[in-house]
Amino acid sequence: MGSPKRSVLITGCSDGGMGSELAIAFHKAGLKVYATARNPAKMAKLVSLEGIETLELDVLSEASIAACAKKVPSLDILVNNAGQANPAAVSDMSIAEAKALYDINLWAPIAVIQGFLPLLLKSTSNPLIVNHTSVTSVAPIPFQAAYNSSKAALSMVTDTLRLELQPFGIQIVQLKTGAVKTNIGENAKKFVVPDGSIYEPAREALLSARETAFTGMGIPAEQWAREVAADLLRKTPAPALWRGGSATTGRVAALLPYGMFDNMLKKMTGLDRVEQIVRKLD
Ligand SMILES: NC(=O)c1ccc[n+]([C@@H]2O[C@H](COP(=O)([O-])OP(=O)(O)OC[C@H]3O[C@@H](n4cnc5c(N)ncnc54)[C@H](OP(=O)(O)O)[C@@H]3O)[C@@H](O)[C@H]2O)c1
Fold this sequence. Notes:
It is built from eleven helices and nine strands.
């Protein structure tokens, strides 16, 4: 009898996103895949693939995490992929909404790890936890500070956990992903410049910069997933994987002196225009 397949559970596998493509890439690599989403009806693409098991998992609900863990007999790899964005200037952001974003991007992955740790501790097949952070955990992209900082916090949790779980033989990897074409933009709240905002005089410039800021940067999710699955299936994966459009730029920027990429980021997001208007340079 052959040894049982290595198994992986992924959160946030709705059609069109990176979780769904990662599920397919792991499936093609021969793993037993548990693909999860808070709304299983959104996993139509995966349901049609024999061998992928789709399960309901709302990462914001401890009851849902516990119920899902009960349905999984054994687990070798856990991928915390579910996440959201909510763009807003720091001076305009709703603190309540920013806290809700942290619930999804920071506290939920921790709760999911706690829920599945008992299964991972029993794994004898190179147990691995993967957290989806972002290149924005090191790149201060303007008008998405809540998102950037939630990912930076998750990045530090991930690095800390890497040491805390070493005695137990569980490896930890974070995905410092750059731009990838998914539904994240449509799923996010629309970026607005509210009346009374300090940015109001440059509203049009900011909104139009936002429209084009990331255009053309994103790589297909399928390509990203193929590369990341191959990276993760190495015996000892790198603790941080930089894949996706402009991920390498972000990685280099993190090593360079502070502010080297400020002008690029300001131009990309329309802040150069704000400066011209506010300082009456026109
Ligand atoms: N796309 C990029 O350029 C990029 C770059 C760096 C990092 N990332 C990260 O990559 C991960 C995947 O994002 P994506 O780009 O593939 O976006 P996406 O297409 O919007 O997928 C996000 C997934 O997270 C799920 N989700 C949100 N809240 C959830 C909850 N409470 N419980 C369970 N699932 C929940 C969504 O479910 P619903 O469909 O039900 O909303 C969806 O399945 C995220 O962590 C994101 O921050 C993305």
